[in-house]
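Blinded run. Sample ID left blank on purpose so nobody reads anything into the name before looking at the predicted structure. Input follows.
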Amino acid sequence: MVELLAPAGDFKSLNAALNSGADAVYLGLSKWNMRSTSKNFSMENIEEAIKIAHDYDSKIYLTTNTILKDEDIEKIAKLLPKLNDYDLDALIISDLGLIDSVNENSLDIHISIQENITNSYTLNILKKLGVKRAILSRELSLSDIKEIAKKSPIETEIFIHGAMCMAISGRCFLSSYFHKKSANCGECLQPCRYDWNFSKLDIDSNENLTNNMHKFDGFEFNEFILEKSVDETYKSHFLSPYDLSMIEHIPELMKSKVDSFKIEGRRRSADYVSIVTETYREAIDNYMSFGKNSYKFNEKWDENLKKVFNRGYDTGFYFNSPFKTSNNNKSKYFKKDIGIVVNYYSKISVAEIKLFDDLVIGDEIIIQGNTTGSFNQILNSMKVNGKPVKIAKKGMNVTIKIDNFVRKNDNIYKLIKKNI
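Blinded prediction complete.
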């Protein structure tokens, strides 16, 4: 059975991943990971995170995959005995200088995608060094991955969903050049996502412009678009790639014999983690239940993934070189903070919610909390002062039958469809 590996930047996302069926969750250790500017887990709460995951029979992997100096390796090495005592399932590393220390502390080693592994010969060497698993490069095709996985003496892992980097395995210098914040030390400020302006173009047309038409593997496409701005300059997001989504290709992924499917997104919200993990869990389980002959793609899966933050989706390098560029979040929905749980009556599964905005029967709400995680629910009924209502106004306290257990101070959001 392939492992489904989900991201978590905080306890909300951790519980969202576990409640949505993740077999394992990867976290960042403060400072030494590629998302060091986002929320991360301290040594104090890593122990709690591991206990929570193990209660679900799931695993926790900890990332320490930035560029490390001698003092960094020495500091991390001092933490390893405690991580072993916590029963950490694996450490994700990119610097081979950590291998001896990790082995000495009997922790499993996973080699990060930062190592840009593209062949089975490297995996043979890693096996000799005591490595259990390697995350393969994003720049590999699916056929390449199949061949490597078939020959690999250790476990393999691949990304199947989430943000794509414009640089090979994240080795980018833009953030360092523009902001003195190193992407390779986890501080990337993502200037690739900027709206780049071109102010000295000899162009007479007022229309949006594209560069020359290209053909690749039977596809015709324009590499980037120049849009005319009100200040007479031209702009483009030509450095910002689409997100990866392989939800339509579960059978092909399953046949690759890779051991773990990984979702990117430690910077993203708990509802993203919940919906993406749940969607892939359902698709994988569907394939395992019905097999390649009876498996059918469910259009609902694609629609679910478009509800959460995304820059548009394509299949990365799996079938051809990606060429689409994204100007922003392309989700069809946005979420609005509309309330907070003030009480939960567990015997009748009813939550009392203080509203910051109006709520209407038929609305889709998101409930999030550190322990609750995140889940969505369509509003079929509600009451104010014990009486059924169709509309509840801002400032009211409303009671709602809730599908899952919730807690006081959990946040309530309303999912609103954009007028696109």
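Unblinding after everyone has recorded impressions. Residues 3-168+244-314 form a domain with the TIM Barrel fold (CATH 3.20.20.60).
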